[in-house]
Amino acid sequence: MSNPSGGLVPMLRQAAGHFYTTATSRGRGRLFVQVIGALVGLGLLAWVIVKVVNNRETLDRLLHAPPHLLLALFGLSICSLLLNGLAFWITLRPVKRIRIVDMLATNAVASALSIPPLKLSVVWRLLIHSRRDQIPVLTIGAYLAANAVVVLAVVLPMGAAGLWRRQVDLAYALTSLAGVLAALGVVYTGARAFAGEHGLARIQRIAGVLRLRPLNRLLASRAFARLHHALAILSHAPTLFGAATVRAMDMLAQSSRFVIAATAVGVTISFEKAVLVGSVFYIIGVASPAGALGSREGGSTLFADALNIAGTSRETYAVIVLAVSVTEMFVWTAGAGLSLLYLRPGRYFRAAQAQPAAPPNT
Predict the structure, then answer these.
(1) How far apart are CA 30 and CA 183, in angstroms?
(2) What is the DSSP string of 100-128?
(3) Which of 178, 41, 58 has the alpha carbon at shortest distance from 118?
(4) Would residue 336 count as lying in a domain?
(5) Is there a domain that residue 361 lies in?
């Protein structure tokens, strides 16, 4: 009997080859950033752990917290994982419809692979969507780019409003809502202007003014047509606003975990503070070029300390942030294991090896 999760090993081998090729063919700069980022992340993680160990009283309160609080932490982490997968599923639908359970499983593995250095989550999505779903690589890139635009359209206005208000009140809520709607409106209007055949022709006419033959050839190529799918996604109003709504719900679920973790250690943190810390936790995890491990924990602890919540020390923040992080990593790892059993990625690699060689599908 074959190992249902046996595809993980060839996937990791192929990922290693990808990064080796990147380092040798495009220079060592990107690999250098990955290594430095990983070292910084591990250093921050060690700093947070030292803070936690030095605060044994708070740690003991967490370890002996009421079971319902710990269950709530796990439940919200599961909810966040599912919402994240749902957002990816919604974003992909205008160009490719796949079963939602397949996307949720794919996202669970990608989430677990986003923790360590090298951002293997992106490589995993490229491999599984191209092998299983037969989506061209450049179309996958377009879909991931569109998803990133949706994330930024939701997170940046909320983060900017938080930096301005430094608390969640009516002004923050109205400013965040207005900012998100304005950002989505700009994205939708711009994408709609350049989406589809008419939009592509408009892009080609604008580029034609420059009279650059290489650019004109690129815009007329099949490769650019694949990348152009990003605008088809962003110009589809139900997709854009649906994915943005799910992203906002995900951020609320993530923020609620900090309130619960604080309650578990006997500290009261208002929901507005939790939203700010949760937003920073999420943004660092997404933006970190070398994996989320360490950078989220250290950055979120420093940010929470900067909020100056009365009666709460930096060591206590470290316990709260680490509780959220460990819970999430446990959920992601367990979800990835179950998802690999369901996906059985090895069959896609075996099928690809059995087929005759063909030009790469881009």
Answers:
(1) 30
(2) HHHHHHHHHHHHHHTSSTT-HHHHHHHHH
(3) 41
(4) yes
(5) no
Q: What span, in angstroms and rounded, lies between the C-alpha atoms of 325 and 121? A: 18
Q: Determine if residue 139 is left, alpha or beta; phi over 0 gives left, psi from -120 to 50 gives alpha, anything else beta.
A: alpha
**8 Å CB contact between 342 and 8:** no
Three-state SS at 189: helix
End-to-end CA distance of the chain, in Å? Answer: 34
Domain range for residue 321? 8-349
Tokens for 56, please give them: 């044994």
Length of the chain: 362
- Top-ranked range on mean pLDDT: pick from 151-160, 286-295, 320-329: 320-329
Tokens standing for 256? 């609620």
Taking the mean position of all CA atoms in its chain, how far away is CA 270? 26
Task: Report CA Rg, the chain.
Answer: 22
pLDDT band at 168 (very low <50, low <70, confident <90, very high): confident
105: tokens are 């499983």
Q: Cβ–Cβ contacts within 10 Å for residue 64, how many?
A: 8
CA distances (Å), 122 to each of 18, 115, 165, 204, 343, in order? Answer: 11, 12, 34, 30, 17
- Any domain includes 359: no
Residue 1 domain flag: no
8 A C-beta contact, residue 44 and residue 300: no
Total structural domains within the chain:
1
**What was the pLDDT predicted at 29?**
66
Report whether 128 contacts 343 (CB < 8 A).
yes
pLDDT tier, 85 (very low <50, low <70, confident <90, very high otherwise): very high
pLDDT higher for 292 or 79?
Answer: 79
Joined together, the tokens standing for residue 281 give 């936790």
Instruction: Tell whether the model's pLDDT for residue 251 goes beyond 90.
Output: no
User: What's CA 177's distance to the chain center, in Å?
Assistant: 22
> What are the Cα distances from residue 317, in Å, to 278, 313, 321, 331?
12, 6, 6, 21
